[in-house]
From TrEMBL:
Species assigned in the record: Methylococcus capsulatus
Pfam families per UniProt: VWA
Protein name per UniProt: Ca-activated chloride channel homolog
Residues of the VWFA domain: 91-288
InterPro entries associated with the record: UPF0353/GerABKA_families, vWA_BatA_type, VWF_A
Domain of life: Bacteria
Length: 328
């Protein structure tokens, strides 16, 4: 559909004629106090009938040019078909552990051994992509917690900055309580039907100023629901000087604390021992926190003003050129 964004600008169409009719001419020998584009051409309108047909061309071009310039100023636009946007009103924050233990290679991604962080990135990116309509933020934490991405509908930016996260960026220890506290602070002033934090960690709280359970109690009072995910395999084979042996790479994971955090806030605790379990957890989160289906619509707009603007300038230049040639 075609429309003008500022149609009231068409009220200036008679401006050249009004200026010619009511503006007093400048004294002889002096410069004009006001010069209106194409006003001189409109001034010749009364005498046009007594001139040769060829002398009307500058006037015609001036009129056409003025019409095109006014049309360009009114911002012609082409409106496309309505596009549906689903908006849930949910604020969803991801908190990802970047401590040194996330470098343990006990996951398999695409048939290759991978560390825990790379597996989290792979699965979390697909989860973020599916959350159309949610505002998503990203917290990275280690020895300290940092807000990497504030709440935004721009899922591509969240995916990109998560992919760029590096182990040790926030320190080698784990400040789970501080991560929860930062999430509470960032979500508190954002009105929403639901506020959700998904916290991924492979260890116990070993740093920070706030204890995890204290932070969970505050989160419960603020209406923040926390889903916790414990990342890491239960068993892996390592080689040393004496051969091979089986070890538990997740012995530092404090599952009791992670479970308590989730239960205090009305969430759930999940255990991700491999990529497949991690993927199933995110699929379950999609069901536990379904995406709302309330739809809003917008129509894309294509600005068309460059066309009448360019043609109007060409017509004006043509009118001036023909007038100069006729005068010669």
């Amino acid at each position: 559909m075609f429309e003008f964004a500022w149609p009231l600008l068409f009220l200036v169409l008679p401006a050249p004629l009004l200026v010619h009719r009511f503006w007093k001419p400048a004294p002889r020998g002096g410069g004009a106090a006001l010069r209106v584009a194409f006003a001189g051409e409109f001034a010749d309108l009364g005498a046009a009938g007594s001139t040769m047909p060829g002398s009307r061309a500058p006037l015609i071009l001036a009129v056409v040019g003025w019409l095109l310039l006014v049309a360009a100023a009114a911002r012609p636009q082409w409106l496309g078909e309505p596009i549906e946007q689903t908006v849930s009103g949910r604020d969803l924050m991801l908190a990802v552990d970047l401590s040194g233990s996330m470098d343990i290679e006990d996951f398999v991604v695409d048939g290759e051994v991978s560390n825990r962080l790379e597996a989290v990135k792979r699965v979390a990116s697909a989860f973020i992509e599916r959350r159309s309509g949610d505002r998503i933020g990203l917290i990275l934490f280690g020895e300290q917690a940092y807000l990497q991405v504030p709440l935004t509908f721009d899922r591509k930016t969240v995916e990109k900055l998560l992919d760029e996260a590096a182990i040790g960026l926030a320190g080698d220890k784990t400040a789970i309580g501080d991560a929860i506290g930062l999430a509470i602070k960032r979500l508190r002033d954002n009105p929403a039907d639901q506020r959700v934090l998904i916290l991924l960690s492979d260890g116990a709280n070993t740093a920070g100023q706030v204890q995890p359970l204290q932070a969970a109690e505050l989160a419960a009072r603020e209406g923040l629901k926390i889903y916790t995910i414990g990342v890491g395999a239960d068993e892996m084979i390592v080689r040393d000087f004496f051969g091979t042996r089986r070890v538990n790479p997740s012995e530092d994971l404090d599952e009791a604390a992670m479970t308590a955090i989730a239960e205090k806030t009305g969430g759930r605790y999940f255990r991700a021992r491999n990529t497949e379990e991690l993927d199933r957890i995110y699929a379950l989160l999609d069901r536990l926190e379904p995406i709302a289906r309330d739809a809003r619509y917008f129509r894309p707009r294509d600005e068309l003003y460059p066309w009448p603007l360019g043609l109007g300038l060409l017509a004006g230049a043509g009118a001036l050129w023909l007038r100069g040639r006729n005068a010669a």
